[in-house]
Amino acid sequence: MAESNFVDYVKIYCRSGKGGRGSSHFRREKYIPKGGPDGGDGGRGGHIYLRGNRNYWTLLHLKYERHIIATNGGNGSAKRSTGKDGEDRIIEVPCGTVVYDAETGEFICDVTQDGQQVMLLKGGKGGLGNWNFKTSTNQAPRYAQPGEPYEERMVILQLKLLADVGLVGFPNAGKSTLLSVVSAAKPKIANYPFTTLEPNLGIVSYRDNRSFVMADIPGIIEGASEGKGLGLRFLRHIERNSLLLFMVPADADDIKKEYEILLGELIKYNPDLQEKSRVLAITKSDMLDDELIEALSEELPEGIPHVFISSITGKGITELKDLLWKELNKETFQEVERIVHKNMDIQALPDDDFDFVIPSEDDEWDEDETFEDYEDWDDDEPVSKP
Description:
Blueprint: E1 9-15, E2 48-52, H1 60-63, E3 67-69, E4 89-93, E5 97-101, E6 107-111, E7 117-121, E8 152-159, E9 165-169, H2 175-182, E10 200-205, E11 211-216, H3 236-240, E12 243-249, H4 255-269, E13 277-283, H5 290-297, E14 306-308, H6 317-328
Parallel strand pairs: 1-3, 2-4, 9-11, 9-12, 12-13, 13-14
Antiparallel strand pairs: 1-8, 2-7, 5-6, 5-8, 10-11
């Protein structure tokens, strides 16, 4: 990951603004005795929003801005002047971002559409000025409300790539090669395991100017659910994919067994992945003749559409596109496309935020304060108790 700017996990601290306090000012003008209360209301604190932006494809911009703090609301003043509202903060995130509470692991929200806006933290409401409390029996109230306190939260943002087809296979199964052949993507290709260290996306062109998105994730191995290889770090991207394309090389000792191992690792990660549509592609088939292909076909898993392909010679690529398009447009396909996000296991996450510092605020909120504690005879003077 040192060579890449792809960031799909970030932990940030968010804090909304607190509401401004109301004013307990009294009107004082020449020739107007007993002008009465005219203290204005405080302004609300700034909100924290999340907004989907299709121009972002990673969370890199948040890696170096890990404290998102909205401004506080302004205090009320004389002549029923309302304080200025705090400035809202909008966090731009790529489509497909999932938000969790960093302390409990609770799922908060999911941002999938461009322009979709979700309020993450609400700013504090501004306090009422003393003119709101005047009555026939209390014509000179000498108190005003303080503003509501801010909200703060440590959140984890995870990016799960949005794609139609996800490639699943062991290292060196030919996933990156296939993506480079059927799309304009240029993933790194080499003859050693774990060449791919980050997910890659490619747009696959189909007939009549139609297309679909294909995602290549780093290879997984047996025991990935236990942390072997690259572990489960990138399997979150598989959850977003509408269709899973399992890729097993033709020179494998047992194609059916390798397919079952891959499927087993996905189910251990998320049992709901078992409900997704699946297609099996046997790669590197240029070394097989028709007789051997027929023999291998009898040993393949039952009930799973399959195709023999070769990314080098182009064998079966057109048939693969046809098969993928057919599976993507099945009538019953949409029933299993939706994803159900589960709460995160915080204990399983690496503790790499030991230097994370939560900013302090000089003017801390006192939970024991009430609006009766304030009396402000002059708008320019500090609040004091009667």
